[in-house]
């Protein structure tokens, strides 16, 4: 590691850790042949009653509405239907969550009064420090103070299924945002999809966001749930074009007169949060590692014995505290049903207490329980923050009501027996929660189905959910929402995570840890982003995640995490390097049960195990620093001057006057808060196959600072690039 010598004495860590834009998945964001281009202005008039509202009438008869919300924030809506809806149309009328945190007329906004002047056919609208001008050709330009930040090069084009805005692209102007654009963080000269591809790998999109911003001093949030495509100079190097598949133009604009990229970023993100809501501040335990697996479905046996002779069996190997191997064999997976006389997994080593159809002779030995897995973390001295015991299709968290169906009353409610099975399973969950809490670990659940008992007589009772009871009685405060519940994304995801967030905050008044994917604008106020299901065991897994994390953090959701060494595959070297760099990220998920080995930091013997432990404990030691940075990222004023800036910071956010810090070459290093420079080992450069040692090249140390290797104390002068930096297996380079 390195640290930077600064007047305050803060240490800067630098952690050692190549991406291209893959061909984009096609979305429908293309110009409609029947589109109408706004060709001229007929009139511009201030609203007579709402002093912050201005109406624009175009020569084709369309009307536009500008609503000035705050100093630096305004909304521009051109609706051919003349409806000017308050909120974007959700993809289902059942979805009630909104992109905005409150309506435009809320007293949370200052609503600066707008004035309109006309000089030579050009209309100028002023409100606070913002000036919007429309020329005779209906081209809009925007100024913040005396600084022009945005200029249209073509009038808006509005069709039945396509709306296009084309803006001037200036030299040295960079573009960021768009959500989880895997493998990318700066989009200048490229095109990105704003569409839920549910794509987890490099070049794909998993949690899109119709929000982008420019270092020129503006940001745009398209108020829509429609797919889009943003071309930041790939087709035409002089323009940036944003297209969405809809029939009206509706956007919030955020403007800044910041002198550099850091000031602009901070202004734009704070304004974006003003409209869409502050990012969730995770509970402290959410920054520690989480363990997730299913413990209520499969058959198990000790050692390498067959757990179920009729099925395929897999032997899982971890290590004991003394380094010896610990083996257990599992038979099961999605769709598996336990058979007579087999040993079943469970939460606490206990069977059902109410009506059930568990086959005869089935036992639930404690050594195959979630409790035993948690105990192995404790025995191996591995820090753990939370545990999800039902992460698997067809799992549940208790065997009460196993394979029992029916029990639905005429009104759709559950009869007494059905309800009793739910309550007994919640009691089983509570017993596990109480035990986990006694070890300093919180609990949560994975979600594949609706969060209240359904009215389907064919649903097995042990799979029924009652989220309010799980929270209030079962004691859980974490919820991971998977694709089966929020996978359609857009308004479905936003509505789902809001429901989960509201339930936890109202039922037990605790700060929730909602982990989700397939998100959209506004979801940052409810959930962290999980990047999805990838295969580990290869350098590519680490490589593309680094720019992904940086880019997501610049998109308005600073809370991001991913599976440790992937959900699938895996290898000890990659796992150890993954533990190293993700120590300096918000969330770490051990998604067990799908890979080539047990996904746990004690899966492999030393030196892997002790190295992973060292970094997990280091993260615990850094929690005061991490939590302060997390509060700033949640747009809370910690009096450190970084309100609204993410935890994972692109280099230019801390070194805005260093031109090289804006370079795409910075995609494999970042600042973690204001004090740690992280540069992960992300590829095989000169790998020693026997020891795992390697080197890291191309580490840029920003100028104007003296940098210190945290482990060795060696000093480095800023403004230089370090090559051949030693990276033994135990060492993450951070300064």
Automatic annotation (TrEMBL):
It comes from Amedibacillus dolichus. One of its GO terms (biological process) is carbohydrate metabolic process. Signal peptide: none annotated. This is DUF5110 domain-containing protein. Residues 644-729 form the Glycosyl hydrolase family 31 C-terminal domain. Residues 65-231 form the Glycoside hydrolase family 31 N-terminal domain. Keywords: Glycosidase, Hydrolase. PANTHER family: ALPHA-GLUCOSIDASE. Belongs to the glycosyl hydrolase 31 family. Residues 486-628 form the Glycoside hydrolase family 31 TIM barrel domain. It comes from the Bacteria. Gene3D superfamilies: Glycosidases, glycosyl hydrolase (family 31), Golgi alpha-mannosidase II. GO terms for molecular function: carbohydrate binding; hydrolase activity, hydrolyzing O-glycosyl compounds.
